[in-house]
Amino acid sequence: MSLDLPEYYFRIRENGAAVFRVDTQNRQRRIEMDQIAVVNIRNGEIKPQGGRELTPTDMARITQWMAERVALLAQRDIDDIHRAVDYLNLTTQWAQSKGTDEQLEHVTDALLLAMHDLRSVLVRKKAERLMGRAPSTGED
User: Fold this and answer.
1) C-alpha distances in Å from residue 46, one per residue of 10, 43, 69, 130
2) How confident is the model at residue 1, as a pLDDT?
3) Residues 65 and 8 sit within 8 Å (Cβ to Cβ)
4) Which tens digit of pLDDT belongs to each residue from 34-62?
5) 88-122: per-residue pLDDT in tens?
6) HEC string for the chain
7) 33 near 20, Cβ under 8 Å?
8) Which of 11, 109, 117, 139 could pair with 18 in a Cys bridge, judged by C-beta atoms 3.0 to 4.6 Å apart?
9) How far apart are CA 78 and CA 121, in angstroms?
């Protein structure tokens, strides 16, 4: 194992992470991880743990990680959409060349409804962009 471990470890959670300070400078030369905070990237909340106050260095590293994590998750969202386009194309090819009548009967209604819903949202959002209006959330 590398002796150059990072000073902080972020254990990913659904909406953020548990933050640990990594210590290898102890007598037993063991890796010790002391939880110092819990962060929520949805609301930007940073909660110190164990009654401690976070140092400016702790805060700087945590906020840096939060920014990097938000950027990574945004990139993954776009990657997922590009994969969805690929899946739609593969599904089209499957339906045209391999899907049996029974298989097609099983999935056609669900696919048509999902594609209609997606098309409706995409057309509305495109129109809003072209008209220069603020985009709606679809929940109004």
Assistant:
1) 13, 9, 14, 39
2) 46
3) yes
4) 999 999 999 999 999 988 999 999 999 99
5) 999 999 999 999 999 999 999 999 999 999 999 99
6) CCCCCCCEEEEEECCEEEEEEEECCCCCCCCEEEEEEEEECCCCEEEECCCCCCCHHHHHHHHHHHHHHHHHHHHHHHHHHHHHHHHHHHHHHHHHHCCCHHHHHHHHHHHHHHHHHHHHHHHHHHHHHHHCCCCCCCCC
7) yes
8) 11
9) 17
Domain ranges, ordered by start, for the chain: 8-69, 78-130
* Amino acid letter, residue 58: D
User: Which residue shows structure tokens 């995409």?
Assistant: 122
**By percentage, how much of the chain surpasses pLDDT 70?**
91
C-alpha to C-alpha distance for 111 and 90, rounded to whole angstroms? 13
With a cut of 60, say whether residue 134 has pLDDT above it. yes
